[in-house]
């Protein structure tokens, strides 16, 4: 799946094509039966109504600007110990780096890895196992991590944090001196600015990309699924601050609808992106780059 933001090209690079999560776990306050009128387009890609499950894609977003290759969010990775999620646990031969290679990108071609936040499904490919040690997967890249996000995780650093992902996928980058701490509002490249999206985690940030008249926001887990466009008040179970997450989501959707901004969430299956239109006093997604 490929789309453009002006002269920038974005490819969706799947790591795990479909990850079903019980709605009660991902969106504890959700009532999927209230979405019956949308069933026709939510199935089969986004919701499994029969199993009461939300279907997420686990993928990275490869953003190529003239002279700069950025990987946004690093999915699950391989060889990681994640027994809590069997589909994430001790993965081998996932084909992720082959899919990147098929797009003409070797690990050493990636200039920047940007983690919107530090949950286990956004940092996995930060590192890979080499001779029993975790090393940066992208050896030339600067890894951009939000200062507030990192401080939050470091303050809680215990071995099981994030299913162990902080220890195997973030700590080794710090030790290898590959991390650049970044702050809200910072411009990391011409037209590419960091945008605060707090609530899902303490310091989640998005990437606002403006190229000519085109504008997109890589918005991480501010919106997990198209159902949260229809029901912005449904925050996710893993959200650190659910009410703040809902307020952030509503603000983001309002802004996307007003300014015709393309949203690029981390987990939308198939399309990888969506435009937002007003619907009564709420919103509806128009999936794809349109
Ligand atoms: Zn996620």
From TrEMBL:
Keyword Hydrolase: yes
Domain of life: Bacteria
Hydrolase found in the keyword field: yes
GO MF, one example: metal ion binding
Keyword annotations: Hydrolase, Metal-binding, Zinc
Sequence ranges assigned to domain Metallo-beta-lactamase in this UniProt record: 57-267
Stretches assigned to coiled coil: none
SUPFAM superfamilies the UniProt entry points to: Metallo-hydrolase/oxidoreductase (SSF56281)
Sequence similarity: Belongs to the metallo-beta-lactamase superfamily.
Protein name: MBL fold metallo-hydrolase
Provenance organism: Teichococcus oryzae
């Amino acid at each position: 799946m490929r789309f453009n933001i002006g002269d920038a090209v974005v490819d969706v690079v799947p790591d795990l094509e479909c990850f079903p999560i019980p709605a009660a776990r991902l969106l504890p306050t959700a009532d999927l039966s209230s979405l019956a009128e949308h069933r026709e387009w939510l199935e089969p890609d986004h919701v499994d109504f029969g199993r009461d499950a939300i279907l997420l894609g686990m993928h990275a977003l490869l953003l190529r600007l003239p002279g700069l290759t950025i990987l946004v969010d690093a999915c699950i990775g391989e060889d990681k110990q994640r027994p809590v999620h069997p589909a994430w646990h001790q993965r081998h031969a996932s084909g992720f780096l082959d899919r990147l290679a098929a797009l003409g990108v070797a690990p050493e071609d990636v200039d920047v890895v940007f983690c919107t936040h530090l949950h286990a499904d956004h940092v996995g490919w930060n590192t890979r196992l080499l001779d029993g040690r975790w090393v940066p997967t992208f050896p030339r890249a600067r890894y951009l991590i939000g200062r507030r996000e990192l401080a939050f995780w470091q303050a809680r650093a215990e071995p099981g944090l994030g299913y162990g992902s902080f220890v195997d996928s973030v700590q080794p980058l710090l030790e290898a001196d590959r991390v650049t701490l970044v702050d809200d509002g910072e411009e990391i490249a011409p037209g590419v600015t960091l945008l605060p999206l707090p609530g899902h985690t303490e310091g989640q940030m998005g990437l606002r990309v403006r190229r000519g008249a085109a504008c997109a926001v890589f918005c991480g887990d501010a919106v997990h699924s198209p159902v949260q466009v229809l029901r912005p008040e449904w925050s996710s179970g893993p959200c650190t601050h659910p009410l703040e997450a809902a307020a952030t989501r509503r603000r983001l959707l309002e802004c996307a609808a007003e300014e015709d901004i393309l949203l690029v969430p981390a987990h939308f299956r198939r399309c990888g992106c969506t435009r937002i239109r007003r619907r009564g006093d709420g919103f509806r997604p128009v999936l794809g780059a349109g």
